[in-house]
Amino acid sequence: MPRPTISRHRKIVFALITTAVFLACANGAVVLYEKLQYGGTQAEKEGIYTQREDGRKVLRPGAVLEGARTKVRINSMGFRGPELLVPKPDNGFRVWCVGGSTTFDVFAPDDDHTWPAQLQDRLQAARPDRVVEVINAGIRCDVISGRL
Fold it and tell me: Phi then psi for 115, rounded to 5 degrees?
């Protein structure tokens, strides 16, 4: 018995539907991977920010973004990393690291591996008689004008 022929139109429709389903599944897999590995999707990562009245995005105090490969904690003052010593010790000094993504250090797996944290470790080792605090005041996606 001969096989029924499928029209060209139906083949095209089938190919488009199959492609759309494949792309939707691939997108879902990427979103799930990103959420598990990096603590959230791109939209959820925006949750660590808040917007000031002037429209500028700043880090939201107390925000946490945690996944299998990353752990970002924003302290109560809105900076990445541990809480600051209040009041500052008499023998202490603070270094402020200000910048964008490279200062925030988006590729660091956790706050202890950012370059400002590593700078603090080196300065503390060089000056064990002082209390050293290096504040990571970097904001991912920040630009010189302060607006995107």
Answer: -65, -35
Answer for the pair 48, 132: CB distance below 8 angstroms, yes or no: no
Q: What are the Cα distances from residue 9, in Å, to 2, 4, 41, 65? A: 20, 15, 38, 48
Taking the C-alpha atoms of residue 63 and residue 97, their distance in angstroms, rounded to an integer, is: 20
The 8-class DSSP code of residue 6 comes to P
pTM: 0.69
Domain range annotation of the chain: 7-38, 47-138
Collapsing DSSP states into helix, strand and coil, what is residue 134? strand
What's the burial of 138, exposed, middle or buried (CB within 10 Å: 0-12/13-18/19+)?
A: buried
* Cα separation, 114 vs 117, whole angstroms: 5
pLDDT tens-digit readout, 22-75:
999 898 888 787 777 666 666 677 778 888 888 788 889 999 888 777 888 999
Q: Is the dihedral of CA 69, 81, 61, 145 positive or negative?
A: negative
User: Looking at residue 113, what DSSP letter applies?
Assistant: G
CA distance 35 to 17: 27
